[in-house]
Amino acid sequence: MSWNMYNTNGKRKYLTESETMDFVRFAKQKSKDVYAFCWLMAETGCRISEALAVSAESIDFQAGTLIIKCLKKRGKSVYREVPLSEEFLRFMKKWINSRSSSESDLWTWSRMTAYRRVCEVMVEAGLTGDYATPRGLRHGFGVRAIQSGVPLNLVQRWLGHADMKTTAIYASASGPEERQIAARMWLDGRGGGGAMSGGERAPRENKIESDERLESANSTENVSARARSEGARAHAAAPPPWTLRSAARLIYCHLLRYWLFCNTNFHCVSLTYLASHGVFRLRSLLSRTTVFRPFGLIADPVPSDRKLCNRTIVADRLSGRGVGSGL
């Protein structure tokens, strides 16, 4: 296999479903024979030489199929059957009956003329590039069939491939299912959601609606939570109502505080009094001890009949009169 779904520049070589529909819509503005030829190419995916070989007898209106002769089988008469849509069958039946020519061949063009007619419609539809060719219509048919879930063996038979490996190449194109799977990991829809087709746009719209619903729900929850917090703050700031129990509790707390204050001060005063009284008693006890007197640590007690002054007063116990003597 010397070809794939992309050229040397990395551009795809097949038409997408929307591009194929645009091609058929612009071909409708042309003559009946051009419209029929372009629609046949897009409907069956046949080669341009095989489409030119189609005759009125090739279309089985009863079975709703088209009998195509495979011209690439040299020396062999090999035919394949491709199903056709009801709309295309009605159009072909009406067009064949309206033809003035009695010839069985539907188109008497040359291969180059048919190629030119297809390319003219491509240009008018705004399709440019390597895929805007009759070969691009055939590749687009194969990709569309694979992405629609048609079994690979049926696609092989409809396209007239001798090897299924050639048909399997169409499975390498990225389809709607692959984009839907990849959309699960896109960041906030920045993965090219604008380029999605109509069938792929619905999951993205549903996701956007669900995101909007989630955001509105979150905003409502935030508002309610904010209102609850503000209400709790206002309730805490408001003074509590006065009751008999609250008044009794307040009086009890004040009495308990006053009792603790008085008890603490009483103990402090008591300890101070006891400490000072104990020091005085210790001092009087030491004053009675004569052991420390020789060392001068404690002074001799002054007799009761003497005073500390500049003169010594000697008391005459007998007469009761004192005589002063100089010191």
Summarize the structure.
By secondary structure, this protein is mainly α. 54% of the residues lie in helices and 6% in strands.
H-E order = HHHEEEHHHHHHHHEE
User: Biggest β-sheet: count, sense, barrel?
Assistant: 3 strands, antiparallel
Strand order of the largest sheet: 1-2-3
First and last CA, distance: 150 Å
| Structural category | mainly alpha
Helix tally equals 11
Structure description:
β4 and β5 (322-325) form a beta hairpin. The model is unreliable at 191-200, 308-318 and 322-327 (pLDDT under 50). α1 (17-27) packs antiparallel against α2 (32-44), α2 (32-44) runs antiparallel to α4 and α2 (32-44) packs across α6 (134-147). The protein has helices spanning 17-27, 32-44, 48-52, 86-98, 111-124, 134-147, 152-159, 164-168, 176-182, 198-237, 244-288, and strands at residues 59-60, 65-69, 79-83, 312-315, 322-325. The protein has 327 residues and is mainly α. It has a three-stranded antiparallel β-sheet, covered by helices on one side. A two-stranded antiparallel ribbon has the order 4-5. The protein is rod-shaped and about 155 Å long.
SSE arrangement:
Elements: H1 17-27, H2 32-44, H3 48-52, E1 59-60, E2 65-69, E3 79-83, H4 86-98, H5 111-124, H6 134-147, H7 152-159, H8 164-168, H9 176-182, H10 198-237, H11 244-288, E4 312-315, E5 322-325
Antiparallel strand pairs: 1-2, 2-3, 4-5
Helix pairs in contact: 1-2, 2-4, 2-6
